[in-house]
Fold Serpin domain-containing protein.
Amino acid sequence: MSPFGKFLFCLTLFAAWRLSSTLFAEAPPAPGVDSASRNASCVALAREAGVRAEGGTGSNFVMSPLSIHAALAKVAAGARGDTLNELLRFLGSASLNELHRAAATKLVGRLNGIAQTSFASGVWVDRMLALKPEFTAIAASRYNATAESVDFVSEAEHARQRVNAFVADATNKQILEVLPPGSVDSRTAVVLANALYFKGAWTQPFDVSTAPFHIPGGTTVRVPSMTTSESQHIAVYPGFRALKLPYKNDVQQQAEF
């Protein structure tokens, strides 16, 4: 039997902007933002990720809306003006205060309380750009994130290894190198990285066996396969099919497309 499904999510964003001198400038309410707009944003991200993954041709990818939301929310905490307004609109919040109140802290706490689940988030800023105590406090209290100063200008490789070590620790050593060599240099100003590690048991485990697989051209090979005779939640749409797999202990279901 193979009862476990293991999924790793990691988001890394690079930024070359200067941190705003006003970290918590209040934006005017963004009209018409609600849960529907949040869902639309997630769908748009999924569509874009699917198109970009290996050119959008026969590739598998996994995305975490929570991870993306947490990263962009931290960017919003250090933005102002039009940039802040655009981020708030995309994230479905009318103001920065509302965004902080609806932060992922509670959900992150629940995730970290589930066996073999952990969420970690960090911001690394070049030491030439001083981190404000207000920003560090918001990152820690609302987004369960660490905010650190590093030296990208003269010690970019050390900073890269520091980020990789953070992600490796957060994912039980499953993601060892989120930043490949050469991905940061003296021009890097800010790195945001989120990592979500989850290993759960399916409610209805699959049977694992070696079964014949027919290759185009008539050749047949035997490969490891997972099979089940249980009823499943399956939907068929133009261009793709969807399968929903529930986990034990009421953990959020995974959707496979």
Remarks:
- The chain has two domains: 2-199, 202-256.
